[in-house]
């Protein structure tokens, strides 16, 4: 039996981040202890909005060099009521994703056994999607500026950047993901009717890359029409590729349609593996429930499973997700999914299920 050891950086950061990351580490440790096929070693980084308020920096000097030494990063959430969102996002999350070239953001969504979609006729299996979000440029490239600040004639620009290299690499990645899934169906989402430069480049690159994947069926949707299709015909969708902004919006909708934003994970991947990839729940800091111990840890469990798969532990990944889904099916659910359990109770139930199934 192999016993590979992985070094994981944990960055719980803000809001419910520390609560769900603690739950994720508990489940991962229980899995590693039970299966005994791999080892995990966690290093905690206390980078957060509190650190920023004390020191003026989210990431200390040399911080990224330390982070780069790890095999993967488990992230919580960033954002504080008294720090503007664009400061916190650019100070921590994007300050890791962009220099580490985690250009592929993967966001799977499905209706778990034992949970319900708010869509009346949507059953488990009808909604099972993976959204691939371009994660390095596009609308979040940081290009733009403000002139005449505060004056009535103030001007601001926010320029989306689409490079052929950037579009082609995410397109290839998306085709590869679609190809590995049973339906081999990829929907390319753009807004190339109104946005006639960058979005037309997306369409052209998609068409060219498609030639290398003849077994993948491709269809094309405008982003506005895509929202309608997600609600009305969820069963017609499988893998979706879209820009940084479009996919960000679509994936929140996807998570809500699957039952709750508290279950969906997101992986920020550097497919070249030159840098560690980062795994996090899709939700944010959720200040309205911070400190109450009621945050749904399922998104963090699922992202932990995605992390294991990325590290090469596909079997352990599947086993973790099976245990989590069994717990959902048994009705141990947090309030966002209509249940009464708290974070600890769900976590304990997952640990018990891991021991029962694999001990
Ligand atoms: P951000 O701007 O960082 O994305 P946000 O405040 O816009 O954050 P979330 O933090 O994701 O969005 O919260 C949106 C809503 O979903 C809130 O009402 C929050 O309580 C709820 N929510 C988010 N995550 C969870 C979770 N893990 N468990 C239960 N409820 C959650």
Write a structural description.
- With 359 residues, this protein is α/β, with parallel strands linked by helices.
- It folds into 2 domains: 1-103 and 263-358, Isopropylmalate Dehydrogenase; 117-258, Isopropylmalate Dehydrogenase, CATH 3.40.718.
- Helix content is 40%, strand content 22%.
- The protein has a 10-stranded mixed beta sheet, sandwiched between helices. A two-stranded antiparallel ribbon has the order 6-7.
- The longest helix has 19 residues, at 17-35.
- The protein is globular and about 60 Å long.
- The structure holds adenosine-5'-triphosphate.
- Adenosine-5'-triphosphate (ATP) binds at residues 16, 20, 77, 79, 261-262, 283-286, 288-289, 295-296, 299, 334, 336.
Element layout with pairings:
Layout: E1 4-13, H1 17-35, E2 38-44, H2 49-55, H3 63-68, E3 72-77, H4 85-97, E4 104-110, E5 128-134, E6 138-147, E7 155-161, H5 164-180, E8 185-190, H6 198-210, E9 217-222, H7 223-232, E10 239-242, H8 244-257, E11 265-269, E12 277-281, H9 298-310, H10 314-329, H11 343-358
Parallel strand pairs: 1-2, 1-3, 3-12, 5-10, 8-9, 8-10
Antiparallel strand pairs: 4-5, 4-11, 6-7, 11-12
Helix pairs in contact: 1-9, 1-11, 5-6, 7-8, 9-10, 10-11
Bound molecules: adenosine-5'-triphosphate.
